Amino acid sequence: MKDESQRLNVLPSGRDLRLPWHLRLPAPLERDFAEFFRNSVAKVAPWAALNVVVLLVLALALELYISPEVAARTWRPRLLCAMLAVATILVARHAEWRRWLHSASLALAFSVALTGDWIGMRVDHPLAFSLFLQTSLAILLMSVLLRVPFYWAVTGSLAMIAALAASLHNSPHIDHQLALVLLLLSLASASMSLFGQYIYERLLRQHFLSENVLFQHRDELHSANRVLESQATVDGLTGCLNRRGMESRLNELLHGFGRGGTGERASVLLFDIDFFKQYNDTYGHQAGDECLKTVASIPRALTQGDKDFVARYGGEEFMVVLANTSLKDALVFAERLRTRIEQLGLPHAGSRVSQVVTISIGVVCASERVSDAPGLIKCADEALYQAKGAGRNRVAYMSDQGRVAML
C-alpha cells in the first residue's frame, strides 16, 4: 500500500510516455520536435560536412596517383560535392537558414551517390567498381553523420539504391555477379544505417518529450510559487501587504539610503482606526471586517507610484509607504487620506470624537538621522501615539529634528 502511494505521488517525467512505432507525435509537438531536431543536428553537421570535404580531397588525390586520366573525369563531380558540403556548413551555422538544413544534407548525400554512379559508368579501370560504393557511403553520411529525419532517410536510401541498380545495369564494365554484390552491400549498409537512425530518433523524441514534460512542471511550479508568495505576503482580508511583505518591500526600498544615495527617499505613514474596539463591540466582528476592508481601500486608491504600497501592520493599524516623497508631500497625502475616510460617513456610535469612523496618522520621512526601516517605523509609531493623545482624528509628524508636531 505504501509503495502504491509512492508511485502515485511521483511526478511524470516523460519517460513513461509511450511513442508509437511510427514515431509521429501530435501536430503541435511534431513542429516543436522538428525545430529541436534541427538545432541538435546543427551542432555536428558542420563537422560532418567538413569530413566529407576532406574525404573528397583524399579521393581525388588517390585517383590522381592511380590514374591521371581517371582524375581528369572525376575532379568536376568531386568539386560539386565539395561545394554542396560547404553550403551545408553555412546553412548549419546560420540560424535563419537552418530550416533548409535537412534539404541541404539530403542534396549533399544524393550528390555523393549519383556522382559515384555517373563516374563509375564512364571510367574504364579495374578499380572503377569501387566508385559505385559511394552509394553506401552516401547512405551512411545521410543517416549517421548528417542525421536526416528517418522518413527522409528511408525515401532517400531507396532512391539511391534504385539509381545504383539502374547504373549497374547500364554499365558496360560491371558484370552481373559484381553488380549483385554491390547492390547487396548497399542494401546492408542502408538497413543498418536506417535501423540506427530509427533508434536514434526514437531516443531523441523520448528525450524531447521528457524535456517538454519537465518544462510544464517547472512552469506549474513557478506559478504555484507565485501564488504561495502572494499568500505569504498579502493580507487575506484587506488585500494589502501583510507585515512580512511590508518589511521586505520597505527594506528593499530603503536599501542603500544614506550610503551614497543609492536607495529611495521614502515617507512612512502609520495610521489606525479610532476606537475600533468599540466599533467591534457595537456592530460585531463581521461589520468590523467590512470596516477594515473599506478603510484599506482608500489608501490603496490614493497611492499612485509603482513603488508605493499599503500594508496591514496589525489589527486595525495600517501603514502607507510613499517612495521618493518629501515630508511636505507626505503630510498633504496624510491629510487627504484622513479627510477621505471621514467623508465615507461610516457610522460609529462608539466613537468619542465623531459619529463616523475616523483615523489618526503618524508621519515620518527618511533622513540622514533615521533611514532604516525599524527607525522609521518607531518614529511613525511615536507620532501616531502623540496624534491619539492629542484627541485623535488628526495627523502628527516627526520633524527632521526629531520632534513631534501636529498638522
Topology of this protein?
Layout: H1 2-9, H2 27-42, H3 45-66, H4 68-93, H5 101-122, H6 134-145, H7 150-170, H8 176-233, H9 243-254, E1 266-273, H10 276-283, H11 285-302, E2 309-314, E3 317-323, H12 327-344, E4 359-365, H13 373-389, E5 395-398, E6 404-406
Parallel strand pairs: 4-5
Antiparallel strand pairs: 1-3, 1-4, 2-3, 5-6
Protein name: diguanylate cyclase
Transmembrane segments: 44-66, 78-95, 101-120, 150-168, 180-200
Organism: Alloalcanivorax gelatiniphagus
Task: Walk me through what this model shows.
The chain is of the alpha+beta class. It has 13 helices and 6 strands. A 6-stranded mixed beta sheet has the order 2-3-1-4-5-6, sandwiched between helices. Helix 3 packs antiparallel against helix 4. About 3% of the residues have low confidence.
